[in-house]
Write a structure and sequence with these properties.
The protein is α+β, with helices and mostly antiparallel strands and 658 residues long. It has 5 domains: 1-30; 34-107, Alpha-Beta Plaits (2-Layer Sandwich), CATH 3.30.70.80; 128-441, Rossmann fold; 449-551, Sandwich (Immunoglobulin-like); 555-649, Sandwich (Immunoglobulin-like), CATH 2.60.40. Helix content is 18%, strand content 31%. The protein has 11 helices and 36 strands. The strands form 9 sheets. Strands 1, 2, 3, 4, 8, 9 and 11 form a 7-stranded antiparallel beta sheet that branches. A 7-stranded parallel beta sheet has the order 6-7-5-10-12-13-16, with helices on both faces. It has a 5-stranded mixed beta sheet with strand order 22-29-28-25-26, with no helix packed on it. Helix 6 (214-223) packs parallel to helix 9 and helix 7 (254-269) packs parallel to helix 8 (289-300). The two termini are 33 Å apart. The model is unreliable at 1-31, 109-118 and 556-658 (pLDDT under 50).
Length: 658
C-alpha cells in the first residue's frame, strides 16, 4: 500500500510539472499521434490508377479509399509492417509524390464554463459578469443590414451536429435528393447512401449526428435560428449548416477530415450546393500534406476555410499548429478573446489559453464562456478558439448573404480590413484586432485599406540586416493590384523605399495586392515606419504608421501582461539566434522578498532557452504564485548584464487569498 501511495505521489508531481512546463518538457512529450496501420499516399500526376494499384500491391498494402478531388489514397500496409517501415517503402517509389501517417486531430473547446452565465456577450456586451461594455462584435448593429440567408451553406467539420436541435433544425442543410428519395439508395449518385444532412466519416456512415456536443456548439454560434423566441441566436440567424463528422471527444484522423472536405467540395462543384465556408475548429501540432491539399482544393472551389488557432497559450509562429498554420490564402486563422477584449487566458490550475502568432494567426473573436447549443435541445458553455472560429464563420456567412457574388478572398479581405484594433492583440495577431460584424457589413467598397504583414506592429529588427517589408493594399471588395505603395522612416537617415507587387523577390505573387521590398535599418533606437498607398483616380490615398525599434544586437524588447502576483508575465525579445551574443534568453532570477537564493522560476520550456530563428518576437512565461510578497524578475540576454531589465511586481491592493 505504501509503495502504491509513493507511485501515485510521483505520478501526481509529474502531471503537475507537465502542466507548468508544458508539453515541450522532455518527460511530458508524447509520440506523434497517428493511427497505426494506415497511410495517406499521393502519386505523381502522371501515374494512372493501374500503376498506383500495382505500387500498393508491390508493398502488400490494401487500398481503402481514393479521395477523388485530391487523388489521395488511404491504404492499410500489410500485417507486420510498422507505419514508419511502410512509409520508408513508399518513399523509395519514384511514382509517389508523398506519403504520411493518418494523423490525429483534436477538438478545440477545452473549457466548459458556468451554466448560470446566460448572456451572449460576444454578440452584444453590456458589461454583464463584470465584462467590458462593447467588447463584442457589434452584432445587433450588423443585423440591421442582414441576418443571413438560407442560400449560404457553412460546412461544419467537427464531432457532428444535432440536426434535430430546436434551435438548429430549421437551419440544417438537407440533401433533398436523398430526403425525398428511397431509403437505402444513393438517389443522387454521389457515392453516399441516405446522406440527408451530411456525412459521418468517423463512423463511415451517412448519419452525422453529434457524438460530443462540440460540433453542435460551434454550429449554434454560427447559425442558431434567431428571433424565434427560444434558446439563443447565432451570428447568422438564417444560414444552412452542412453537418460533417470526423471526430469524437478524443479527436479524429486526417483521412476523415480530408473526406469531409472532399464531400463539401463535391457537393458544391458536382451537385450545385452553395458551400461558401468550412468551419475547422480542430487542430494538432503535426503537418499533414494531405490535409493541406484538401484545404487548397477547397480554396480552388471558392470556399473559405476558417481555422481555430489552438488552445495551448503559445506562439504559433514558434510552435506550429495545423491546419490553422498552413500557408494557404483561403485559411483564416482565429485566436480567442475574453469579455474584456484581451487574449483569452485561464489561470491556475490550467495555465493555458488562446494561441497567437503575428504571422500565423490573422485575428481574434470572442471565445470565453460562450453559450450555445448542445445535444438534445440543451444549451451550455464552452471556451476556446473553436468558439472564436465559429464567430468568424458566422460573420463570413453574413457577408456572403449581403454580397452573394463575392469570392472567398473578397470576404477574407472584408473581415481583415474591418477589425477593431485592440491594445492587447497588438503584435500578437496579424491584424492586431478582433472582428467587428457591423464594420465588415458597412465597409465602403471603394475605400483603400492597408494591412502591414511584415514586420508587425511593435517590431524589433537588427541594424544593418536586410528586413522584408510586406504590406497588403486593397478594399473590402478585393486587392488593389495597381496601387503605388511607399515606406519612409523618421530616422532622417534611412531612405524611403517603393514596394512592388510584381512577383520579384521579395514579393511572392504578382498582382495579389501584397507589396514588398527590402529595408536595411541604419540607425539603432526607436523608429516609426510610415506606409502610404495611392491609386488615383479610383481611390483616395491612405497611410498608416508602425512603431518599432532597431537594435544593434539581441535585446529585451518589452514586458507585456498583467503585473499582479499569480498571473503570467510575458517577456519579448528580438535578434536571438544571431551571430551577436549567444542567442540565449536567460531568466536569471525570480526572488521572493529579499531571499535571492530562493529561485521560483518556470518557463514554457526551461530556464535557458535557445531560439531557432532570428528577428521574431518570442515569449516566455514566468508563473507567479498566489502569495502577496514582493517579487523581482531579472532578465538578461547574451549571458551578460549589459542589457539587463528589471521588472518589480509589487503587492496588489486587494487582500491576498489564504
Amino acid at each position: 500500500m505504501a509503495s502504491q501511495r509513493t507511485v501515485l505521489f510521483y505520478l501526481a508531481w509529474a502531471c503537475l510539472l507537465c502542466l507548468l512546463l508544458g508539453p515541450r518538457a522532455a518527460f511530458c512529450r508524447q509520440k506523434p499521434a497517428y493511427r497505426e496501420g494506415e497511410l495517406l499516399v499521393k502519386f505523381k500526376p502522371r501515374v494512372g490508377i493501374k500503376a498506383s494499384l500495382a505500387s500498393h500491391a508491390s508493398v502488400g498494402s490494401r487500398l481503402q479509399k481514393i479521395f477523388r478531388k485530391t487523388r489521395i489514397h488511404l491504404v492499410k500496409p500489410k500485417s507486420g509492417l510498422t507505419t514508419s517501415e511502410a512509409i520508408d517503402l513508399y518513399e523509395k517509389n519514384p511514382d509517389v509524390e508523398y506519403v504520411e501517417p493518418n494523423r490525429k486531430r483534436q477538438p478545440h473547446d477545452i473549457f466548459p464554463n458556468d451554466v448560470n452565465f446566460v448572456e451572449l456577450w460576444g454578440l452584444h456586451n453590456t458589461g454583464q459578469w463584470h465584462g467590458t461594455p462593447d467588447a463584442d462584435i457589434d452584432a445587433p448593429e450588423a443585423w440591421q443590414i442582414t441576418t443571413g440567408s438560407s442560400d449560404v451553406i457553412v460546412a461544419v467539420i467537427d464531432t457532428g451536429v444535432d440536426y434535430d436541435h430546436e434551435d438548429l433544425s430549421n437551419n440544417i442543410w438537407t440533401n433533398d435528393a436523398e430526403l425525398n428519395g428511397s431509403p437505402g439508395v444513393d438517389d443522387d449518385g454521389n457515392g453516399y447512401v441516405d446522406d440527408i444532412y451530411g456525412f459521418d466519416a468517423y463512423s463511415d456512415d451517412s448519419d452525422p449526428m453529434d457524438g460530443d456536443n462540440h460540433g453542435s456548439h460551434c454550429a449554434g454560434t454560427i447559425g442558431a435560428e434567431g428571433n424565434n423566441g427560444i434558446g439563443i441566436a447565432g451570428v447568422a440567424w438564417s444560414v444552412k449548416i452542412m453537418a460533417l463528422r470526423f471526430m469524437n471527444a478524443d479527436g479524429g484522423w486526417t483521412s476523415d477530415a480530408v473526406e469531409c472536405l472532399e464531400y463539401a467540395i463535391m457537393m458544391k462543384e458536382d451537385f450545385g450546393h452553395n458551400v461558401r465556408v468550412v468551419n475547422g475548429s480542430f487542430g494538432g501540432a503535426e503537418y499533414s500534406q494531405a490535409e493541406y491539399d484538401a484545404i487548397q482544393a477547397a480554396g480552388d472551389a471558392d470556399i473559405l476555410f476558417v481555422a481555430a488557432a489552438g488552445n495551448d497559450f503559445q506562439d504559433n509562429d514558434v510552435h506550429a499548429h495545423y491546419p490553422s498554420g498552413y500557408d494557404l490564402p483561403n485559411i483564416m486563422a482565429v485566436a480567442a478573446t475574453d469579455r474584456h477584449d484581451r487574449l483569452l487566458y485561464f489561470d491556475a490550475p490550467l495555465f493555458t489559453g488562446s494561441n497567437w502568432g503575428a504571422a500565423t494567426v490573422d485575428l481574434a473573436a470572442p471565445g470565453q464562456a460562450i453559450l450555445s447549443c448542445k445535444r438534445g435541445d440543451s444549451y451550455g458553455y464552452m471556451s476556446g478558439t473553436s468558439m472564436g472560429a465559429a464567430y468568424v464563420s458566422g460573420l463570413a456567412a453574413l457577408i456572403f448573404a449581403a454580397n452573394q457574388a463575392y469570392s472567398w478572398d473578397q470576404v477574407n479581405l472584408n473581415i481583415l480590413f474591418t477589425v477593431d484594433p485592440l491594445e492587447d492583440l497588438d503584435g500578437l495577431v496579424l491584424t492586431g484586432g478582433r472582428i467587428n460584424a457591423n464594420s465588415a457589413l458597412t465597409c465602403i467598397p471603394d475605400q483603400l485599406h492597408l494591412l502591414a504583414l511584415e514586420p508587425s506592429s511593435g517590431f524589433s529588427v537588427l541594424k544593418d540586416k536586410p528586413t522584408v517589408v510586406r504590406v497588403l493594399a486593397g478594399t473590402c471588395a478585393g486587392p488593389a493590384a495597381d496601387a503605388s505603395v511607399t515606406v519612409s522612416f523618421d530616422t532622417g537617415v534611412d531612405p524611403s523605399a517603393v514596394l512592388h507587387d510584381d512577383g520579384t523577390d521579395p514579393d511572392l505573387v504578382a498582382g495579389d495586392g501584397q507589396y514588398a521590398g527590402f529595408w536595411t535599418p541604419q540607425v539603432p533606437g526607436p523608429v516609426t515606419m510610415m506606409v502610404t498607398a495611392s491609386a488615383p483616380p479610383a481611390y483616395d490615398d491612405v497611410s498608416g504608421e508602425l512603431l518599432g525599434e532597431v537594435a544593434s544586437g539581441p535585446t529585451i524588447k518589452k514586458f507585456r501582461g498583467p503585473k499582479e502576483p499569480g498571473t503570467i508575465l510575458r517577456i519579448f525579445g528580438n535578434g536571438f539566434g544571431d551571430t551577436q551574443g549567444d542567442g540565449v534568453l536567460h531568466i536569471n532570477k525570480l526572488t521572493l522578498d529579499s531571499t535571492s537564493n530562493r529561485i521560483k522560476t518556470w518557463t514554457d520550456n526551461k530556464i535557458r532557452v535557445k531560439l531557432p530563428f532570428v528577428n521574431k518576437d518570442c515569449d516566455w512565461y514566468v508563473h507567479g504564485n498566489s502569495t502577496c510578497r514582493k517579487r523581482k524578475v531579472w532578465v538578461t540576454v547574451g549571458g551578460t548584464d549589459s542589457n539587463k531589465k528589471i521588472l518589480r511586481v509589487r503587492k496588489p491592493a486587494t487582500t491576498c487569498p489564504p
